[in-house]
Amino acid sequence: xxxxxxxxxxxxxxxxxxxxxxxxxxxxxxxxxxxxxxxxxxxxxxxxxxxxxxxxxxxxxxxxxxxxxxxxxxxxxxxxxxxxxxxxxxxxxxxxxxxxxxxxxxxxxxxxxxxxxxxxxxxxxxxxxxxxxxxxxxxxxxxxxxxxxxxxxxxxxxxxxxxxxxxxxxxxxxxxxxxxxxxxxxxxxxxxxxxxxxxxxxxxxxxxxxxxxxxxxxxxxxxxxxxxxxxxx
Length: 233
Prior knowledge:
The protein is mainly alpha-helical. The protein has helices at 3-16, 24-34, 39-51, 60-76, 81-95, 106-115, 117-122, 126-155, 157-232.
């Protein structure tokens, strides 16, 4: 999908879950991880999730997983585990134990090969055989989905590294923008406090000097005045 389509799908999630308040970095991460997906497939997954009673926005990994599952099912035909067992049962009736059939679904073919076709046809414990088949088919199908998700991840790894660097740089810019005004404010405050202290200190020193000068002059004036009055008496 394009960047515009990934932004639209991310915005759809924000609108569907009003209590979700993702940060800018979270939105960028969602948009980048959605890019390798097909737009129509990703939107289908998101709309399916929104229609459920889910109260919180889904992790982006869950969206990628569901999209990979739908992509595999679309190419092979969506089959539930019960439907695959019905296909096996029909093949047992039509082919017998001597002619092993071929299956188009890779997970189904691997499950049949793992259990051995002749064993599937001749085992009298049908319930145990079916339960074993369900486990094998589910494991093989989950493995294929996981590999598909890994392929999507490897397709966007260079972009992911660029995204990490961009988020780190953005975080550093935000830290600097928050720190510099505070430091500037403290610096200006210190300068203002320094000027006030200097002005106060200068006034005190000047006052002390003036007081000292006045004190030194008063005794001298009184002494001179006494000496003038002495001879006139």
